Amino acid sequence: MRQEDPVANHADTPDATAPHDASAMRRAIALASRGLGSTSPNPVVGCVITDRAGTVVGEGWHQRAGGPHAEVHALRAAGEAARGGTAYVTLEPCNHTGRTGPCAQALVAAGISRVVYAVADPNPQASGGAATLRAAGVTAEGGLLEAEAEAGNTAWLTSVRLGRPHVTWKYAATLDGRSAAADGSSRWITSPESRADVHRLRAESDAVLVGGGTLRADDPHLAVRGIEGATQPLRIALDTHAGLLPTARILDDAAPTLLVVGEDADTRHLPDAELLRLPLHDGRIGVHDLLARLHYRGVRSLLLEGGPALAGAFLEGAAVDRIIGYIAPALLGAGPAALADAGVTNISQALRLDITEAVRMGPDLRITAVPATATTAPKEH
């Protein structure tokens, strides 16, 4: 990873940051979020440009992979008013030519005199934008609202740093932790408000994953509904022995579908399905084998909607980055738990979490948490 120039962060402490700098960067972070679910394998990025007097004259965000970057959209909106102004960008301007040109050079050409960015680019192929700006006489400062910008771009940053997609495990359960009743019925544990929020999560994700148990029990559809203009995620069915029926709803044309099976699975009854064959480890597909292949395919954010066994395998493999639980104010007393075996046999091995948010969803409670700092290496499963 490139070492950050120490002069880049001098002006980024709270004492040295002007209030209008923070306000402009927060706006850029909000703009970046509009690209969630439609920019992979690229990051989400927002940009705000102010003129010499500090007035906002241009805004933009990265809208889709292969399209103009956030800085280009903002520069087009600002026009000549950008000359001598400041650009606030959530990610260090890129320094390479891919499907689009380098944003660092575009900022220089537009006459921008100062660039403030939140997060240094960890991608060695694109980093170095700040150095290019400084070499051209542009003031470049990094680190403003870094934590907030990282949170909004966590999927892409995880993929660059770890070489795998960022994984969110979503589940719904009653207050006593049951994901279904004793007879297996589970519709509907949570409220319409919670179910609508799940569609938002799908729309912000590159892919949605379920396992064979969920496929057989619920015949899920997994496509996004109720969100206009949403990019449909890749629907992934992890079905080791290809027991999926050709009539399964996940195989319709509402969204792309990938069926992940064992190397020797008989798939002759699924002639039109896109297949990914992976080796089995103790009869199961390895979590990290799957994640590596999805990363190679361009998946940067994965929403895990499978049942308790699939969630347990990902947690045991230390491959869950965020947990979102929709907790309904109901009690069942019996039935399957939301989480099955995750490799924990003693209370000292409990997977400790840090709660980052707790909000009401109609009558339900949505809790968002992230794993506390890991102290052991991940186990393959």
Q: Report the portion of residues in β strands.
A: 15-25%
Q: Runs with pLDDT <50, length 5+? A: 1-16, 374-381
- Cα Rg: 23 Å
How are the strands ordered across the major sheet? Answer: 10-9-8-7-13-6-14-16-15
Please give the number of β-strands.
16
* CATH architecture descriptor name of the largest domain: 3-Layer(aba) Sandwich
Protein name: Riboflavin biosynthesis protein RibD
Cofactor: Zn(2+)
Pathway: Cofactor biosynthesis; riboflavin biosynthesis; 5-amino-6-(D-ribitylamino)uracil from GTP: step 3/4; Cofactor biosynthesis; riboflavin biosynthesis; 5-amino-6-(D-ribitylamino)uracil from GTP: step 2/4
EC number: 3.5.4.26, 1.1.1.193
Name some characteristics of this structure:
alpha/beta; 5-stranded mixed beta sheet; 9-stranded mixed beta sheet; 23% strand; 2 domains; disordered N terminus; 24% helix; Dihydrofolate Reductase, subunit A; 381 residues; Cytidine Deaminase, domain 2; elongated
